Amino acid sequence: MVKTLSRWLGLALLLAAATAAAELPTYRLELHNGELRPARLEVKAGERFKIELHNTGNTPVEFESTRLRKEKVMAPGVQSFVVVHPLKPGEYEFFDEFHLPDARGVIVAK
User: Fold this and answer.
1) What domains appear along the chain, each with residue ranges and CATH number?
2) pLDDT digit of tens for each residue in the chain (110 aa)?
3) What is the rounded distance in angstroms from the CA atom of residue 13 to the CA atom of residue 26?
């Protein structure tokens, strides 16, 4: 009985987290063989948001932002996302570490 209740509770928490992430403002970022599309994302300062990551190229990519403490490695054809905490107004760099020095972008929080 306790084991079953624990499973249901875990499932409910997972579903709640997925629902909360789905309701966030969402921005699409395409990583394609060293190109970031778009290379500039404008977001609302003070608001959590989600970046959908799409590796449309034929090589692995690594979305990374040192300042945001986010990192995501993806194989070709993979889609994923990162959730970013509310940002203060300013610029926050991100890059594809596997395709430096060219694959650089910026998030601008206004």
Assistant:
1) 25-109 (2.60.40.420)
2) 556 656 676 666 666 555 555 589 999 999 999 999 999 999 999 999 999 999 999 999 999 999 999 999 999 999 999 999 999 999 999 999 999 999 999 999 99
3) 22
